[in-house]
Amino acid sequence: MSKIANKQEICNVLLEQAANDKDIVVLCSDSRGSASMAPFAKERPEQFVEVGIAEQNLVSISAGLASCGKKAFAVSPACFLSTRSMEQAKVDVAYSRTNVTLVGISGGVSYGALGMTHHSANDIATMASIPNMRVYIPSDHFQTRKLIEALLKDEEPSYVRVGRNAVADVYEDGNVPFVMNQATLVEAGSDVTLIACGEMVKPAKDAAMQLKEKGISARVLDMYCVKPIDADAVFKAVTETKVIVTVEEHTKYGGLGSMVSQIAAEQGSCRVVNLSLPDEPVVTGKSQEVFDHYGLNADGIAKRVMELI
Amino acid sequence: MDLKQKACDIRKNIITLIHMAGTGHIGGDLSVTDILVMLYYKQMNVSPDLLRDANRDRFVMSKGHSVEALYSILADRGFFPKSDLDTYSTYGSKYIGHPNNKVNGVEMNTGSLGHGLSVAVGMALAGKMDHRPYRVYAVMGDGEMAEGSVWEGIMAGGHYKLDNLTAFVDRNRLQISGKTEEVMSQERQEERWAAFGWNVLSVNGNDMDALDEAVEKAKAVKGQPTVIIANTTKGCGVSFMENQVGWHHRVPTDEEYQKAIEELDFRRAQYE
Questions:
Q1: Which of A104, B80, B94, B205 reaches 20 to 30 Å from A185, CA-CA?
Q2: Is the confidence at residue B184, as pLDDT, over 70?
């Protein structure tokens, strides 16, 4: 198990880069502690803005800063950032094309037992539906670093979702394949393709190992770039494997599964099955307990594939 | 040219645009005209040559539906050819019914109320961070004050003591459904803003000299943002449009159009 949560790695990258780039500004909505941004606030107070518990203000102020040349990172719980301030994301960030990165922390069901108010199982749907807004959900801290470094090099709006806890590594030090806006091939395979994002990539990878023992060759794609989705990788999966199974920590409508299914449907012949959270206030508990409840784990993914093959 | 005459010309242009296109928010355009003329021809350091200048003043039209007033002024100041406005509100034109930053001189896209002040707070914060001399202006409607996000922006402006920020409330006392006081009370604006730490000035918002004087005062204040409650008349300058709720977004008939232009020509002649 990795010791570094993805959100912590975001803080690390921003702190490193902010030393030489005065235009990097981090904004929080009384969320610096939960966002692991306290070190940034402490070391770079002149590049940190606190707005209080006011997510709409958070996003609009970020846009104003960005319109004056700043690289604004608005860091706030994903549940609030992706819905309460959705209109600010739409108008002030995406429509106005300001250089704002919205970082939704403790995303998905990270806040498990706190209930539906604190879940953001619909953030792909809300954010990806906005023109000009990109959506990224990195899997582990290695990929998170690569992603944030890439985002610092462009000036377009984006939404990044990361979970609350440190998660098991998908990649390893010195071996982190990453091309911006291209799905990462985690495992090669020819029978079935597992397309996952965020915290679901590791269980998908583990499921592929289980399937291998049963003689099934599973390809695993890390679709951290939910939007713009890597359509070429999906096309290849459609033509080269028999079944696609998508796995995501998101409600069944408007997420990764919906997007992959849309692309696959245009191509025709490949069956696509979506594994996701159901369209209901989900059961409460720790993230892993919620995942286990709905079969969003290696066993559940492997079992579903066995039923399909 | 005298700015009062300029305001008459801008009003004529607004009415012509709306009459031509068959759409627009005429009442609020006419109430906010004097504020914009004072800012764009007297106070603000903006021009087509300074479009990318980091030290230019920033303006946010938070009440984005008064875009015809803004377009008329930007065209007159040379930010784009006046003939561009022939396409206003037509298929594929960038000159749409709310400001967007594809149009030269427009800093930020607006149209949904309650965003502009917070964006202006961000611009003012950036100015403070980079020690730049520019000032930031935002214009809001009084109906807009019902949006909760406005108060988040007011809170942050006061908290960060943004003395490079000046907000205007176009207090014309009417909104689409009727009188503001009947739709949602906006009384004692001065006290509301003051409670959040703002320097508050209240003036006749259709009096160019009073507005100019208020901005001069705002520039002199240290450690506080300023709000200028601009008490205006909706439809100002055209007798039959003044204080009539129906003229929020009515389009003048040919006859009404002629009469409005005649009234503004008469008014303009008085300033010569």
A1: A104
A2: yes
What pLDDT is recorded for position A3? 83
Give the A:B interface size as CB pairs under 8 Å.
Answer: 98
Token output for B263: 């009234």
Residues of B in contact with A88 (CB under 8 A): 115, 118, 149
Task: List the single residue in A57, A72, A95 with the smallest CB-CB distance to B153.
Answer: A57
B126-158 pLDDT, tens digit per residue, is 999 999 999 999 999 999 999 999 999 999 999
Q: Is A67 in Cβ contact with B123 (below 8 Å)?
A: yes
Question: What is the pLDDT, as a whole number, of residue A1?
Answer: 56
Tokens of B181: 């006081």
Q: Please give the pLDDT value at position B272.
A: 85
Q: Is B164 on the interface with A (CB under 8 A)?
A: no
Query: How far is it, in rounded angstroms, from Cα B18 to Cα B24?
Result: 5
Pick A57's closest partner by Cβ from B109, B112, B156.
B156
Tokens matching residue A75: 């860091």
Tell me A120's DSSP state. Answer: B
Interface of A with B (CB under 8 A): 25, 46-47, 49, 51-52, 54, 56-57, 60-70, 72, 87-88, 91-92, 95-97
Domains of chain B by start residue, with CATH: 3-270 (3.40.50.970)
Tell me the whole-structure pTM to 2 decimals. 0.97
Judge contact between A107 and A134, C-beta under 8 A.
no
pLDDT band at A201 (very low <50, low <70, confident <90, very high): very high
Q: Do B125 and A96 touch (CB under 8 A)?
A: no
Q: A224 exposed, middle or buried (CB, 10 Å; 0-12, 13-18, 19+)?
A: buried
- Residue A130 CA to residue A90 CA, distance in Å, equals 6
Q: Mind listing the pLDDT tens digit for each residue in A15-62? A: 999 999 999 999 999 999 999 999 999 999 999 999 999 999 999 999
This complex has an ipTM of 0.96
The type of residue at B67 is V
pLDDT at A159: 98
Compare CB distances from A63 to B119, B129, B148 and report the shortest one's residue: B119
CA A145 to chain centre: 13
User: Is residue A2 very low, low, confident or very high in pLDDT (cuts 50, 70, 90)?
Assistant: low
Please report the domains of chain A, with CATH numbers, ordered by start residue.
6-161 (3.40.50.970), 184-308 (3.40.50.920)
Smallest CA–CA distance, residue A62 to chain B, in Å, is 6
Using CA atoms, how far apart are residues A21 and B104, in angstroms rounded to an integer? Answer: 29
